[in-house]
Amino acid sequence: MRIGKHEVPYPLIQGGMAVRVSGYRLAGNVARCGGIGLIATAGIGMDSPHFKGDNYFAAEPLALKDELAKAYEIAPDGIIGTNCMVAVTDFVELVKASCEGGAKLIVSGAGLPLNLPELTADWPDVALVPIVSSLRAAELIARKWHKSYHRLPDAVVVEDPDTAGGHLGEKLENIGTGQYDQYATVRDVKAYFQDKWDLDIPIIAAGGVWDRADLQNALQQGADGVQMGTRFVCTEECDADDAFKQAYLNCNKEDIGLLMSPAGLPGRALVANVEAIRERDLEMTPTCPTGCLRKCAYKSKGERFCIVHALDRAQRGDMKTGLVFCGTNAWKATRIETVAEIFDELFQD
Ligand SMILES: Cc1cc2nc3c(=O)[nH]c(=O)nc-3n(C[C@H](O)[C@H](O)[C@H](O)COP(=O)(O)O)c2cc1C
């Protein structure tokens, strides 16, 4: 698969997973095995030596560059990129730090990355990959990028709100209704770029891809590649605490659900402790500790809970008041495997 100037042997992107579920170890090892590894940027600094408790925004770009450097130690020639969420306050700084730190691509969602080409103008080799859940969002991005920056995406990730983990690009009431057709959206986005722009870019399906059969199905249905998140959590190399991985191993289908994030987007997670997370933060007299999101119901009104700290606690192994994001396939995890084993299963002849 070729994205912009970068080529990988296998058509697989490991989805960016914040907070620090996909850090340098996971991304580096996926890249070493011949896929594209992504470091999730949101909250990357909170466990770094740069973070002193009150300098969240200063620590983030520094920590991100450290993580990129460490990922390249694992895979010196690998294709390593970052996942940057439009919804975070320091989106601009994290995009720039990604470029400065040597990211070869930036995958960007949780909002429309309408100004991404402007931010990366000094790094023309960095491939730009928006995440969308609808043809309409892909059209909006393409029109804006072309008009303002004479640029078009190098690939597009089409993320299925009915199966993917983390924040989802669809209204809560529309998720799981059976109306969304993941591969029809993939084909529509593919046809749009071919017909309207005469452009053959990889369209990558994200959400619900677990094994070789799912991968082959995605390719047969018109996707050029897949982005996988949940499957990579129960690996030795995943950057989350063992307790986070164990929560996946222990969970059943019924434990996986939807919640409203203070970011104003629905999210998919293990939902049993969501009330405990909320109570923890409300009891502590709501004050926003970081200002990580541009728009946040917790920051402005004390509603729900502080998401970045809930995700941070989960990554460190606090299963009581940590928020464990996951896709609908998390219950399928039965053991801790290695990234290389997953690649063998998916791609070995
Ligand atoms: C723990 C976890 C954290 C995630 N964090 C992010 C994130 O920070 N940014 C993002 O764009 N997507 C995020 N996602 C979505 C994944 O990158 C991926 O697109 C999606 O989970 C694919 O579906 P799958 O998990 O069924 O493979 C997250 C998913 C999980 C499971």
Could you describe the 3D structure shown?
With 349 residues, this protein is of the alpha/beta class. It has two domains: 2-240 and 335-347, Alpha-Beta Barrel (TIM Barrel), CATH 3.20.20.70; 243-315, no CATH class. The chain has helices at residues 24-32, 56-74, 91-100, 116-119, 135-149, 182-197, 212-220, 242-250, 274-283, 297-301, 307-315, 339-347; strands at 2-3, 6-7, 12-14, 36-40, 79-85, 105-109, 127-132, 156-159, 166-167, 203-206, 225-228, 256-260, 266-270. The strands form three sheets. It has an eight-stranded parallel β-barrel, surrounded by six helices. The mean pLDDT is 97. Flavin mononucleotide is lined by residues 15-18, 21, 40, 42, 83, 85, 109-110, 131, 159, 163-166, 206-209, 227-231, 325-327, 329.
Summarize the topology.
Elements: E1 2-3, E2 6-7, E3 12-14, H1 24-32, E4 36-40, H2 56-74, E5 79-85, H3 91-100, E6 105-109, H4 116-119, E7 127-132, H5 135-149, E8 156-159, E9 166-167, H6 182-197, E10 203-206, H7 212-220, E11 225-228, H8 242-250, E12 256-260, E13 266-270, H9 274-283, H10 297-301, H11 307-315, H12 339-347
The chain binds flavin mononucleotide.
Short key terms for the protein model shown above:
binds flavin mononucleotide, alpha/beta, TIM Barrel, 349 residues
Which percent band covers the strand fraction? 15-25%
Which CATH class of the largest domain? Alpha Beta
> How is the main sheet built?
8 strands, parallel, barrel
Q: Considering DSSP H and I runs of 4 or more, what fraction of the residues is helical? A: 25-40%
* Distinct helical segment count: 12
Radius of gyration: 19 Å
Euclidean distance between termini CA atoms:
17 Å
- In the CATH scheme, what's the topology name of the largest domain? TIM Barrel
Strand arrangement within the widest β-sheet reads 3-4-5-6-7-8-10-11
Uncertain stretches:
none
CATH architecture of the largest domain: Alpha-Beta Barrel
Order of helix and strand elements from N to C terminus? EEEHEHEHEHEHEEHEHEHEEHHHH
Count every beta strand, where a strand is a DSSP E run of 2 or more residues.
13
Q: Kindly report the oligomeric state of this protein.
A: single chain
Number of domains: 2
Q: Would you tell me the overall average pLDDT?
A: 97
Tell me the overall shape. globular
Instruction: Give the cofactors and ligands.
Output: flavin mononucleotide
